[in-house]
Amino acid sequence: MTFSFKLFIAGSNPKSSLAIQNLNELCEQYLQGKYLLEVIDLLLHPELAELHGILAIPTLVKTDPEPMKRLIGILSDKMKILSALNITAA
Does 57 reside within a domain? Predict the structure, then answer.
């Protein structure tokens, strides 16, 4: 099973950097080789915010496996993120 994520950020700022770092660490620790991550900068592609229903940033969208999930913030609470995304920490 492969997890697919889209992380919506707005430019290079501390919150964007932390969200990217935290998500990369989580994926490498728990999903090594079983995930796809697309980072989308809404400053470069503002039209994608409306298309994907993004109201706050950073926002993580898990598209696969279903059900789709959205998480807002810097993704710092690993156990909360794992639970919300239905990823086992075993």
Answer: yes
